[in-house]
Amino acid sequence: MEKWKDRLTDQLCTAMLSLDTKEEVYSFLEDIATIGEIRALAQRLEVARLLSDGYTYPQIAQQTGASTATISRVKKFLEYGADGYRIILQRLGEHKEE
């Protein structure tokens, strides 16, 4: 198991999996994180989506307000990470088609 994965992070993941609705997720996020942290996570996901759609760094920076450092970091994880972004982006795409 990786160093950051432990009983507490397992509990967090299990808690997130137990949420049934978008409203429950909003409530949980509001209680567990600051608005700034939530917005930063949302911004990174949007950066990942735009990178996957072939947008350039300047286009992404203009649309999201993300720094080039953030865009580069997201790109690195898209290419060499644990595939979390790809899984989420694929599932978000599937929900759009419904």
From TrEMBL:
Pfam families: Trp_repressor. InterPro entries: Trp_repress (IPR000831), Trp_repressor/repl_initiator (IPR010921), TrpR-like_sf (IPR038116), YecD_YerC (IPR013368). GO terms for molecular function: DNA-binding transcription factor activity; sequence-specific DNA binding. NCBIfam families: yecD_yerC. PANTHER family: LMO1763 PROTEIN, TRPR-LIKE PROTEIN YERC_YECD. This is Trp operon repressor family. It comes from Dethiosulfovibrio salsuginis.
